[in-house]
Structures are given as C-alpha cells and as structure tokens.
Amino acid sequence: MMAEYVTIRELVDALDIKLMYGEEHLERQVTLSEISRPGLVLTGYETDYKSSRLQLLGNTEIKYVCRQAPEERRKIYQRVCREDTPAVVVAQNLEIPKELVEVAQEVGIPILSARPKTSRVLANLTNFLEGHLAERISVHGVLLEMFGIGVMLVGGSGVGKSETALELVQRGHRLIADDRVELFSLDELTLIGEAPEILQNMLELRGVGIIDVMSLYGVAAIRRSKRLEVIIEFIPDDGTIIWDRLGNKEESERFFEVDIPKYKIPVKTGRNLSVIVEAAAVNFRANQLGYNATEMFNQKLKNLIGENTKLQESDDHE
Predict the structure, then answer these.
(1) What's the predicted TM-score (pTM) here?
(2) pLDDT digits (tens, 9 = 90+) for 233-284
(3) Residue among 161, 173, 174, 223 flagged as catalytic
(4) Residues contacting residue 276 through CB under 8 Å, at least 6 positions apart
(5) Known active-site residue 173
(6) According to the 3-state scheme, what is the secondary structure of 34-54?
(7) Assigned CATH for 136-295
(8) Which of 48, 67, 238, 245 is catalytic?
C-alpha cells in the first residue's frame, strides 16, 4: 500500500517551508514525488512540460524572468502555473515577483518559500515525497537501531522477538517498530522501515500487554524510521536443523529489488538472544568495514593444513 497524495498543508508542516500566498489552497494534493525545475518552460519550450508536479524556482529562474518586460513576465508565469500544478516553491527566501502572485491567484495555486539553496530544497522535497508516496509493504517483525545499524528481528509468533527487543532497549538500543514494520524503497539500494502511526513507540509483551517505550525509557529509546541493513531470523531449535557453524553460507531476503543480508539464529531455552543479536550486528558492521572473521579462520586453517602437509612430507623423506 502507498499514500495516494500529500497535501500542501502536510508539506508546509513537515519541512522548512513557509506559505506566502494561497492559504485557501492548502488542501491541494501532490501526487508525484518528482519535482520540476521549469527552466526551459520559462523560455517558451513547453513540450513534455510536467505541469502536475511541484514547480521549483531558484535564483537563476527568478532573475531570468525579472529581466523580461512586465507583460512578458505574466505570460511566462502563465506557462508555469496550470490548473493541475499543486504549488510553486521559491527557494533561498527570494522575493516573490508580483506577476507570479497575480497569476497563481488567478489559477488558484499556493506559493511557498523555502530558506535553503535550490539544490537543498529539491533534495528535501524529493526525500519527503518519496518517503510518503512510495509503495509500502508491511512485514511481521521488530525493527531496532543497534550501533547505528537498522536490524529487523523476524520469526514465528511467540518466538521471543518483542522480549528480546525490550532487553535490547534496556541495553541502550532504540526501538523503531514492533509487530508490524512498514518498508519502502528510498532508492535502488536503500530500504527504510518505520512503524504504522497507531503502533509508534508501542511494544507488546505477552502476559503484560502493550507498553509505551518512550514513556518508560525516554525519547532516547525510540526512533521514527531507520534504514534496514540486516535481518535476524529466530528459529526454534528442535534438533532437526543443521546449522551453519562457520558462517560460510550467506543468505539474504529481497524487498523491492533490494537484497538485505540475513542471519538465522537457533532459539533454545536459556540462550541469551539479546547478546547474540548484538554480536550479529557488530559482526555485520565489521564485515562491512572489510573484517571477516570467517575468511580469517579459513585462511589460518588453510595455512595450518599446509604446514602439517610439509612436515608430513619431510618425515616421509627421512
């Protein structure tokens, strides 16, 4: 599922953007995450102009239009402002040209002003809209931030995910989502996870009920969203599964064409799962930095076998 639109009001409330004109149009809808910088449209080239996108004007565009004759300026802004245009955003707190105000009021679209540079405004708008308009999937699991890493615990119901998450929170890690994790793709390499609004800050413990993690452990114990980097699956150990003891077998799970590394951890009575999860997270980070304990062990084993073979050959020759 994904949101069908974002209103201009939501945009203004969430970002460093001010409404300059058109308060009565705050409920206009933005349905596309792409932002248009209508440089060519200003010069008269309107082929393939995406008028239904947010229109972003920076210093270059404003200066160009200001150099034109007053009547020509109106015609230029009429080309930019269409009935399906959600809003016009002017960057760098530039003064809003009166011709733009007049045309926007005639068409019925709001004008917004942003303080940062145009490239930063473009990035902020794109990230916000992609995060809200992207397709989402809901996954059964618990998402935490551990040592700066986004770790999702998955496994069957009642296997101990929430209890482990609570212990990890008590050890200084941060909860993002419990029970349901909403995932969406920020780009080709990045998955973001967050909690549904109704479950934010909440954690369910069997026999206790639902607890508010922020109320019990403070704001430092929670986070709104996090990039998903590794999955840890809890699997009950019934003695029939042959486990990878050296870590040679690499597994992953794919969401939105993004492959996420996955560890499988056997669950037994008496095992300290929180410590094991911490070790798995740190080991993942070490692998990312180029330190691989499995490869080092295999190399040491290979060297030892080589040395023993040489000694055996030497003894045979004697």
Answers:
(1) 0.71
(2) 999 887 777 776 666 677 899 999 899 999 998 888 778 899 999 999 998 8
(3) 161
(4) 265
(5) no
(6) CEECCHHHHCCCCCCCCCCCE
(7) 3.40.50.300
(8) 245
